[in-house]
Write a structure and sequence with these properties.
Number of helices: 2
Strand order of the largest sheet: 3-2-1-7
Shape: globular
Strand content: over 45%
Number of strands: 7
Mean pLDDT: 95
Length: about 90
């Protein structure tokens, strides 16, 4: 889907992919995997995740991450309508 972003994790990094951009940022070494997107709100993600075998609600704010990477949040996020979890 053209307006869909993908969220996953790989060892100690969270991976957020949209179109041709892949954004990786450090996360807790206790994170095993993301399980469910609860809410997507234009750069703010409420997600269920498993940490040390226990599922818990977590939050990801992409705006400061994008700003630190010199990516304009408003233009990058404006076309994302949905975020889903995908592991290969």
């Amino acid at each position: 889907m053209q307006n869909e972003a993908i969220l996953s994790n790989d060892e100690r990094f969270t991976v957020f992919t949209f179109q041709n951009k892949v954004i990786r940022f450090k996360t807790s070494p206790r994170l095993e995997r993301y399980t469910k997107i609860v809410e997507w709100d234009n750069g703010y993600i409420v997600v269920m995740a498993i940490y040390n075998g226990k599922e818990t609600e977590d939050y990801i704010d992409l705006i400061p991450i994008l700003e630190n990477l010199c990516i304009e949040p408003e233009s990058f996020l404006k076309n994302i309508r949905k975020v889903r979890i995908k592991y290969d």
